[in-house]
Specification:
The structure holds 2 protein chains of 2 kinds.
Chain A (H helix, E strand, L loop, with lengths): L3 E4 L2 E4 L5 E7 L5 E7 L5 E7 L6 E2 L7 E3 L5 E6 L8 E8 L10 E2 L3 E5 L1
Parallel strand pairs in A: 2-11
Antiparallel strand pairs in A: 1-3, 3-8, 4-5, 4-9, 5-6, 7-8, 9-10, 9-11
Chain B lengths: L2 E3 L4 E5 L4 E3 L2 E3 L4 E8 L5 E7 L5 E3 L5 E5 L4 E6 L8 E9 L8 E2 L3 E6 L1
Parallel strand pairs in B: 2-12
Antiparallel strand pairs in B: 1-4, 3-9, 5-6, 5-10, 7-8, 8-9, 10-11, 10-12
Classes of the chains: A mainly beta, B mainly beta.
Chain lengths: 115, 115
C-alpha cells in the first residue's frame, strides 16, 4: 500500500550542482504535482502534469524542470541548484474522478539543502 | 485568481476543549474547499472537503468544517481536542473549473493541544 513515494528523502547539494527528485505513485492517477514548502508560505506549486507526456508550469517554476515519461513517475530536476531552492519538496497525485473533486495524495517529502 | 487566508499562525487549546482553526478564501465561481493535516516530518493528509450540499462537512478523526458562503469562510472545528491533534493544518481552495484541479493552499496554522 505504497501510495506516493519520493526519493531521496534527504539531500545536501552545493551551489551549481544538479539533481533529480523522483516521485512514483501506484494508484494509477492521471494528475501529478510538485510543491515546495517553506516556513510561513504554505505549499507553492512548482510544476504539474495532467497525464503521461504532459507538463505545465505552476506558481514558482523558475529553476526547475520536470518530466513525465511514464504515467506512474514524475521527475523534478534542478539543473543548477541555488541556496534559494533549499526547501522541502512534496509530490502529490490525484485523479479526475467522476465527481470532479480530486483530492490530493501526498508523498512524505524530500528535504533539500543547498549550500 | 484564487487565494486562501489562515489568519492565525498558531492556535493553542487545552485538551478536551473545542477547537477552531480559521480559513477564509477568495475564488471566482463556486469553491471546492479542503482541509489537510501535516504531522512532523510527514506529508499532508486529507481531512475533509466541501464540494456542494450541506454546509457542515464531517471528516476524519472527528473533525468537521462549516462552509459559510456569505463570509467566504471554511473554519475547521472539533468539539473536544486531543493532544494527538497537535499538527500543522492547511486550508486549500480551487474553483470548479479547469482541467488540472490546481489547489491553492493557505500558509498553515500550527495547532497545539495542551494536556
Amino acid at each position: 500500500n505504497a501510495g506516493v513515494t519520493q526519493t531521496p528523502k534527504f539531500r545536501v547539494l552545493k551551489t551549481g550542482q544538479s539533481m533529480t527528485l523522483l516521485c512514483a505513485q501506484d494508484m494509477n492517477h492521471e494528475y501529478m504535482y510538485w510543491y515546495r514548502q517553506d516556513p510561513g508560505m504554505g505549499l507553492r506549486l512548482i510544476h504539474y502534469s495532467v497525464g503521461e507526456g504532459t507538463t505545465a508550469k505552476g506558481e514558482v517554476p523558475d529553476g526547475y524542470n520536470v518530466s513525465r515519461l511514464k504515467k506512474q513517475n514524475f521527475l523534478l530536476g534542478l539543473e543548477s541548484a541555488a541556496p534559494s531552492q533549499t526547501s522541502v519538496y512534496f509530490c502529490a497525485s490525484s485523479n479526475p474522478s467522476g465527481s470532479g473533486t480530486g483530492e490530493l495524495f501526498f508523498g512524505e517529502g524530500s528535504r533539500l539543502t543547498v549550500l | 485568481a484564487q487565494s486562501v487566508a489562515q489568519p492565525e499562525d498558531q492556535v493553542n487549546v487545552a485538551e478536551g476543549n473545542p477547537l477552531t482553526v480559521k480559513c477564509t478564501y477568495s475564488v471566482s465561481g463556486n469553491p471546492y474547499l479542503f482541509w489537510y493535516v501535516q504531522y512532523p516530518n510527514r506529508g499532508l493528509q486529507f481531512l475533509l472537503k466541501y464540494i456542494t450540499g450541506d454546509n457542515l462537512v464531517k471528516g476524519s478523526y472527528g473533525f468537521e468544517a462549516e462552509f459559510n458562503k456569505s463570509q467566504t469562510s471554511f473554519h475547521l472545528k472539533k468539539p473536544s481536542a486531543l493532544v494527538s491533534d497537535s499538527a500543522l493544518y492547511f486550508c486549500a481552495v480551487r474553483d470548479n473549473s479547469g482541467s488540472a484541479r490546481q489547489l491553492t493552499f493557505g500558509s498553515g496554522t500550527q495547532l497545539t493541544v495542551l494536556p
